[in-house]
Amino acid sequence: MKFVKYPSIENMNRIETINAIVEQGFSGGEWCATNKIHGANYSFWQDDDDLRSAKRSGLMDGDGGGFYGSHTVYAKYSVTMRQMFHDFKSQFNFDYMVAYGELFGGSYPHPEVDRVPQASKVQDGVSYCPHNDFYMFDIAFYLEGKLLFYSSKTAVGYTAEKFGIPAANIMAKGTFKEMTALNPIFEDPLYKFFGLPKIEGNMSEGLVISPVDTKFFTGGSRVILKNKNPNFSEQKAKKERKPPKELDPEVAILLDEGFTYVSENRLRNVLSHGHDLSQKDFGKLMGLMAEDVFIAFSKDHGNELTCLEKKNKKLVNAALNREIAALIKPNWQNILDGNF
Questions:
Q1: CA–CA distance from 201 to each of 76, 105, 127, 189, 223 (Å)?
Q2: How does DSSP classify residue 6?
Q3: Least enclosed by CB within 10 Å: which of 101, 258, 270, 303?
Q4: Whole-prediction pTM
Q5: Short-list 46, 70, 11, CA closest to 226
Q6: Cα angle for residues 49, 44, 289 (degrees, 5° grid)
Q7: In whole angstroms, what is the distance from residue 161 CA to residue 100 CA?
Q8: Backbone CA torsion sign across 103, 108, 113, 116
């Protein structure tokens, strides 16, 4: 099976993406909204012979070992994934199936709910269940190493219900305008799936907005958006700071924008990708965080960054790297301990 990384989802506030949806004719038809889970990207890969699991960066050996309790999730759904595979195989031809989703859970701080001793807390911010579990949001089918199609959101919900898997069930349907106008601030509903008592103020990470039937831009990327609860934004508010003397005023303004991408939420998202870190890997995490920051910064300010003189570009990069180091350094031990 050829690994295919799940594509990143664009933020709904990117005007360029919204314009492309309208200009390429995708704003028509039926759209839907599903609950966005605050977890770690995880997927099941099933063919005629084997079941593999994967994190965002690639396929894992065996049951995934210590990746956020994935070994328990692999054991829980291994038979289910084979059943799903054969159920679809009886309907059409493909080589392998991928169930994309998120690992989540590991903590549910409620007085009536017992702790699961071996569970691994995947993320802070939202409490889902005391054990580790899998939330399926897409099913893809491949033939000869090439994507055939993704199941519709309706089919994902139906399949999940049939096989008893927590999933991105449709919360609302309507026009593009109606779905993008939905409020992303609401209490997370997933506790109901597990029959757990409610935790007041346990807010969702937000919404994923997409056509009910999968669409692709002319460049090949998917038509899909995320509308995050502002509390989970990977950008932070600007703060007053004295600009470096060596920077021109307009470059200093751009750098201030760059600093907003260096946030705790972004760092947590980078950590959720499952990178193995030890005491000697401070530089490795710096590099991973810098890559994520510069990708996001370039998407929103690509033209300005491209026009920078080489000298100014180096100064901006150096300043952002110092900001990243200043974020990671005081949290380093907690990161290694899994408590960040």
A1: 30, 17, 10, 11, 31
A2: P
A3: 303
A4: 0.81
A5: 11
A6: 135
A7: 16
A8: positive
Look at the domain 249-337 and name its fold: Arc Repressor Mutant, subunit A (1.10.10)
Instruction: Compute the CA torsion angle 91, 211, 102, 94 (nearest 10 deg).
Output: 20
Domain at 10-232: CATH architecture? 2-Layer Sandwich (3.30)
Host H or E run for residue 226: strand 225-228
| Per-residue confidence band for 303, with pLDDT thresholds at 50, 70 and 90 | confident
Q: Each residue of 221-241: pLDDT tens digit?
A: 899 999 999 888 887 777 777
List the structure tokens of 224.
Answer: 């899909």
Average pLDDT of span 232-258: 79
The residue whose two tokens read 């409620």 is 110
pLDDT tens readout for residues 87-141: 999 999 999 999 999 999 999 999 999 999 989 888 888 999 999 999 999 999 9
The Cα–Cα gap between 26 and 216 comes to: 9
Q: What is the pLDDT of residues 162-186, one digit of tens each?
A: 999 999 889 999 999 999 999 999 9
Report domain extents, the chain: 10-232, 249-337
Q: For residue 73, give the amino acid letter.
A: V
